[in-house]
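To: structure desk
From: M.T.
Subject: fold request, one chain
Message: Could you run this one when you get a chance? Sequence is below, nothing fancy, just the single chain.
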Amino acid sequence: MKVTIKGHKDQEISKIDPRIYGSFVEHLGRAVYEGIYEPGHPTANELGFRQDVIDAVNELNVPLVRYPGGNFVSGYNWEDGIGPRKDRPKRLDLAWRSVETNEVGLHEFMDWANQAGTEVNMAVNLGTRGADAARNLVEYSNHPGGTYWSDLRKENGAEEPFAIKTWCLGNEMDGPWQIGAKTAEEYGRLATETAKVMKLVDDSIELVLCGSSGSKMPTFGEWEYTVLEHAYDEVDYLSLHLYWQNFENDLPNYLAKSVEMDQFIKNVASICDAVKAKKGSEKTINLSFDEWNVWYHSTEADAKREPWDIAPPLLEDIYNFEDALLVGCGLITLLNNSDRVKIACLAQLVNVIAPIMTIKDGELWKQPTFYPFMQASNFGRGKVLDLRLDSPTYDSDEYKNVPYLESTAVLNEDEKEIVIFAVNRSEKDSMEVESIIEGFEGLSIIEATELADYDPKQTTQEKHDSMKIKENATFKTDGATVEGSFKPLSWNMVRLSYN
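Reply: Done. Structure tokens follow.
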């Protein structure tokens, strides 16, 4: 199979916002307790955080982490997680029917984020609470001092403000499963008034408005339009959520699901622009794809769990190679829409539908999805080039004219690099690749790597080191044209330098 990748240095989609490589830690299952926090673990530091997890997060180079939810936030009182630990209440978490000890709260998570080298995307509770609790949290977190809440932060050990810049106005508020779910009118009004008071406390913050909980929701489209009509002038981003499943065990259709993600982004951007036009606004609302991932492997096990445990093993999907390929397609899709998607959060980071898994008192292991995310986050920094791809296509059960080649290219001018990411969706055929990116001289190959030659159902659960990024020795260049091959069912990265 022959494919071509063509581009030009002066034809770009957008500069990449690094927050597109964000992730998510919710008070859910073992994400916090036994995930990032396990005081008795051999690698635990003085604050009780697992250093091996911090090291793995550093490998992923995650610039932003959404916290503390998710569904959890819609029933959460943030004040439960401040002050002396011995005085913090244990609460029933109705979202996941667990017991929350509040041993880790705002201060502890900010300490973890600092150690992990990441910023925090803080969510406020617009389910059971509203504008007053939200503005108090902003004051507690970001005000320098001299007021009740900011001085209480100092009393609790944080002299300097946390300076949290990105905030979510609730979570999935149209979902009937959500604590305090609302109609679009109810949420639109509440979000608008909450946004106003939050920005009165700190006008430097950026706010994410809840879109509908997915493109297949009956509320989709009308919800986005209605809540934006209310809150457009007060917010900066609109959220999107998407999870993939392969219950049918249909690999060609499964790997085509990133096509749905691409259309979802374009549809929501169109709705944002329609409201912009109606209002005659000069402001463009960009997108925060703050939940996306594969999620279905753990559904049956979770249905059998009894409620009210502390840190039960929930949503512990064991990912396989085909999941890694689809996550790679998702990363490429986000990059190719980086003109509108400025924030994205792989949901989630540790133990819960996550690339990083931990064993209590034991070792850490990396799921197959770890590897494409790691490469994209570390090397996909700069500008996305507007490519022209020539690839054969196929039809699946749900999607038509799906290209076998999914690809993007990133120009990093600081490093004088061009980085091509690509997935070959074909189960049988290798791709003979010709890449011509004009406007550059003296192209040379820094490295070409692949994640390939694995059974689609292979995991790393039993043998943790059984999947690795390998060298792809087929690539060569004459200084202008790059040629090589992508194996069937493969994730690929080709790094090029230029003069």
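Reply (cont.): The radius of gyration is 23 Å. Let me know if you need anything else for the meeting.
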